[in-house]
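DM from R.C. (forwarded with permission)

"hey, sorry to bug you on a friday — could you get me a structure for this? deadline for the figure draft is monday and I only need the backbone to look sensible"
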Amino acid sequence: MKLDSLIKNFSFINNFNNYPEAVILIDYSDNILQWNKKACEIFGYTREEMMGRNIAILFDEETEKIHESVKTGKAFVISSKNKADQSLFVDISCGELIKKQKIIVTARDVTRNQRVIEKLLMEYEKASKISVYKSSFITGLSNDFKTPVHSLIGFSQGLLDGICGELNEKQLKYVTIMNKNANSLLELITDFLELSRLESSHIETDIKGFNLVTTINQIIERLQSRIASKGLQLEVDLNDLTRKNVYSDEGLFSKVLTTVLENAVKFTEIGSIRLKIMHPDLELLKFQGIAPPQEFTDKSYTLFTVTDTGIGISEEEKAVIFDEYKQTDRIGAKKHGGTGLKLALVQKILSHLGGAIWLESDLGQGSTFSFVIPVERPKVKTTAESLQEVYAD
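My reply, with the result:
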């Protein structure tokens, strides 16, 4: 039986006792006039003990929630005490009997649920603090690692450059291996540190306007020598891009696009790489789990698609390629090197920016990585609009 039905039929005393929740009838001075069996079970007081007493004995300083519930029709979870002075949490809903000038209060014991919620909140707060300490510890430790690694790279590169004279064949072999491994270790430490920062949400964004085409050209220019050294062809298609001045974090965007292009170059030995930039259909965004703000259009986002003719990716690898904890060895991974964390980093960066990344690939048939980012400043709500949302909730 719902509260509305109970109010309509309140004159039948059996409704009170048969109701599955505590039912308390009070006057406008908060004095108790009626008390059902479920109220006896929850609060421990008999009907005779409660008649004429003020309901504040149960709800102490939160009695104002009763009148707020009457006015708004909302339910509230408030603290309470039973006869044994044990703390309870009850979910109350209240209604007004206008002609009778009385208020009906229904209460449901939610103490167990509230304790679970409190425990979860405490564990979350504890985990958050641990995450902060872990991030700080990893940052310091990573910096301590970087110092000797930089020394290894510097000294080994100096030997390769001949600062101590010409190296014989055996020395050249060993120093080259040392230099290569030191650089790989530095890359691993850098990726690991970046991943830790992203996981702990310790990342500062610099959202501002910039020219997308200019930034893309700068990225391609930096990669051009590596692309040319492998004899690959790079095609850039901007024909469907209508919005060139965008609003995002240029540094993070550059890191994402550079990583995706480098990945394509790394795993492509023969053929070409094609970069296509366009504006996506909003339905595609929703399919990828992005919920665009109401005022956003397709021009509010930019879609980047990088297609290569490389070695491709197996179904097993596609399932974990963006997961930093489930990296598998791709074909040729040892040959091409890398930490296996960069695409996981890309996914986290895009998530931080409000975008997403996905791929299509078959082993031996090349790969297509697509990612999308918002490129429009969200609308700033007026005070009136913000108040409307609050009251609407």
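R.C.: lifesaver. Residues 328-336, 381-393 have pLDDT under 50 and may be disordered.
me: no worries. Residues 120-199 form one domain.
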